[in-house]
Amino acid sequence: MTGKYAVFIWGSYGLTLAVLLWNALVPQLRRGALKRRLSEDSAAPEESE
Amino acid sequence: MWTWFHQLASPPTFYRFADRLAPWLLAAALLLIGAGVYGGLFLAPPDYQQGDAFRIIYVHVPAAALSLAVYSAMAVAGAIALIWRMKLAEAAVVAAAPVGASFTALALVTGMLWGKPMWGAYWVWDARLTSELVLLFLYAGVIGLNQAYADPRAGARACAWLALVGVVNVPIVHYSVTWWNSLHQGSSILSVEGMRNPKIAGAMLWPLLLSLAGFFLFFGAVWLRRMQNEVLSRERNARWAQDVVAA
């Protein structure tokens, strides 16, 4: 794919890869952050006692 | 069957079900997308008019199809959330919106990148393009509305209403190329007539079908993951959620 349309084609596929990666990774990162926050919240009352 | 559905509506059952299903969906999706993209880029012949530029179809059409399907799914989930007040349906509406918005934006941008070499312009105020842009604004509205509420259940119900009202735009997007004069081409396969008599050669069609199937499975996987996060956050005080966090 090196013709005159290469920039448009590879640009489209590059953006698609970025969107797929964003969609796949964000829920995993959010879940990690959520679990950390919830475990800190549940540990907080015990620490204050 | 109905008993199974009722059980699945319970947050802990759903969470475990999604944990098992999502990795398989993601693996199958990546396999299908990979095969579709490889076939589209390297095996399908160039179009006799558009040359290689037509290869953008293998990412543009699946993204555009998902943009409509996700909003329709949000409307169905929204109706269930409003009628039966099902927590899982509320989570489904809220979780689908960012994914749908990202694929709508992708459909618009890849369409622009296809339009420039074919039409000579990145953007025209054509019925298809304009209605798809309105769809992106509707997604943005749902995301913004959800973030505007402190109470997640109230926010989700407001989002459900917007999903239901906005779904009127879905047939407008789909039929815009039929109802109005448009620069955008008509449906090649995503119509009853297109299914019966495809306007696209078999060598170009199979990678598109693989890519379409892969994108839909990919959405299934990430939707489940986002719903899990929503459910876990809302049920944080429940015993099962604390067990999940502690595990």
Structure description:
The complex is a heterodimer of chains A (49) and B (247). Chain A has 49 residues and is mostly helical. Helices cover 88% and strands 0% of the residues of chain A. Chain A has one helix spanning 6-48. Chain A is rod-shaped and about 65 Å long. Chain B has ten helices and no strands. The longest helix of chain B has 33 residues, at 11-43. The interface between A and B is medium-sized, with 28 and 39 residues.
Structural descriptors:
heterodimer; A: 49 residues; mainly alpha; 1 helix; B: 10 helices; 79% helix
Task: Describe how the helices and strands are arranged.
The complex is a heterodimer of chains A (49) and B (247).
Chain A: H1 6-48
Chain B: H1 2-8, H2 11-43, H3 57-84, H4 87-119, H5 127-148, H6 152-166, H7 169-179, H8 192-196, H9 202-234, H10 239-246
Summary, kept brief:
The complex is a heterodimer of chains A (49) and B (247). Chain A has 49 residues and is mainly α.
Coarse shape of chain B: globular
Separation, N- and C-terminal Cα atoms of chain A: 66 Å
Radius of gyration of chain B: 20 Å
Q: Largest interface, by Cβ-Cβ below 8 angstroms: which chains and how many residues each?
A: A-B, 28 and 39 residues
Q: Which structural class is indicated by helix and strand composition of chain A? A: mainly alpha
Poorly predicted residue ranges of chain B: none
Q: Biggest sheet of chain B, in brief?
A: none
Query: Structural class of the secondary structure composition of chain B?
Result: mainly alpha
Q: Tell me the total number of β-strands of chain A.
A: 0
Number of helices of chain A: 1
Gross morphology of chain A: rod-shaped
Oligomer kind: heterodimer
Give the distance, in angstroms, between the N- and C-terminal Cα atoms of chain B: 31 Å
User: What's the number of helices of chain B?
Assistant: 10
